[in-house]
Amino acid sequence: MRVKPLFTLAMATVACVALLLVQAVGALELPGRRLSHPAIAGYEPGSDVTQHNLIDLDQQEMESHLGNDNFTAAGLIYNHGGNSGAHAEITLVTALAADAAKSVAVSQAGNNAATGTVKSLASAGATMVKVTYTSTCKEGGLSQQDVTGCFTMTGGNIVVGGVDIGAPSAILNKYRTLAGFSTAAEAKMRGQEYYQIYRAYYGNGHYSHTMVTDALAGTGSCSTCDPGARKQFAKKSSAFMGVWMYVIREMEDALVDCANACINCNDDPVHAWDEAVAFYTGSLEGISVATATAQGSGKLLHQLADKRCANFGTCDSASTNVNTRIFTQWDLGRNALQNGRCIEAIPVKRRVVELMSVPLVQGSLRYAYKVAHLSGGSVEKAEGAVFSAAILPRVAACDASAARLISDNMAYTAATPMAAGYPAVKQAFESVYSCLGITCEDVGGLISTGTDYYEHAAPCVTATTTPTTASGGSSARFLPIIMILPVFIA
Questions:
Q1: What is the pLDDT of residue 389?
Q2: pTM
Q3: DSSP 161
Q4: How far apart are CA 244 and CA 284, in angstroms?
Q5: Judgement on whether residues 126 and 66 belong to the same structural domain of the protein
């Protein structure tokens, strides 16, 4: 957000102090209303995002198929879904005589098993109604389907709010998909702060989808990949590029809705923010912090942070554990949005993105080391290439030469992988930590055993300085506002 030229110094100071309080709260939680929706790894959403949370089951099935070398089945679940956001597009023989309002109950006269609610307003004269399933209807790209609760062509007339609206002429069941997170990016994310950086770097709006589909087919960017590398490119590009950016999209959407005073509209700011948490976490992490900290429980970004912090010795401290810190930010953002304090959520969003970047850097460094020093083969090369691809646009926005060095050494197609050596790649990442909004302590060092680090892989140390006044006294108490102000007016 850019501050208007006429914004007074006093107002700017107050705003910056408010921003400082938002960023410095740490582990403290702001007071909020009592919530009753299912929790997500300890986070209490202000809206129902149960269906959104199930997207990780698509990723889980996709990875299962990849593990069996079934790239075709992996593509079906990736492209068509089946677990999240089930809804039917019901085309009618006769146009609607009256409006079909959102959330009104829908049933089928001769099919008691099928139930749902109107997904979005269908106005009088429309010949199609979108219905969100409340019964079980799992088709899409699932290998094991359950159609017991699906609307059918032989089930009789459609009933909306107790009113018979006639027979269907066609029924199409659709689902939220992992592919859609990327293929819809151009339409949904154009102009958004972080998406534009990635789009510009890769030259297209569906860069992660391109990487996944190339890997599944063994063509294009993955034409030289062996099966092991194809698996890594497919599953990691899906979760750590496609889902990663869509989490940010939902936060951006929440901010736009809040700025438009859209508190009670269809996609209100709290709901969009909750969707970001759901897509970051997934259903497999459970509802509590305890279940979410269990290793191996998830398939999305929450689990990635758990895995990488174990590799880099950053799990145990509340000051370095990525998930602990991100969930503090989720709470801050939700509470600010619930109370219409839109501007307070802007630095929260940016802090979440910074923290979400840490596991990508850690993953890049881990596999760079494996390739450079631990005889890593095609699989390790592919993993390093995907992790670096997931963070390179942000690196390039900070320093193009650092990004080029990382890419030249970590690209799957590099003539001599890690030719410059691990210390050079590590230093290239470290040179942009400040710009990325992270620190040496956030990233940690690559653990070999216990608390010992691999050679050349120990943590760097963030340099600290103590500003002084002209008379030699410390002015540190004024430093946070000075540091935060550029973020506020950027």
A1: 98
A2: 0.87
A3: T
A4: 17
A5: no
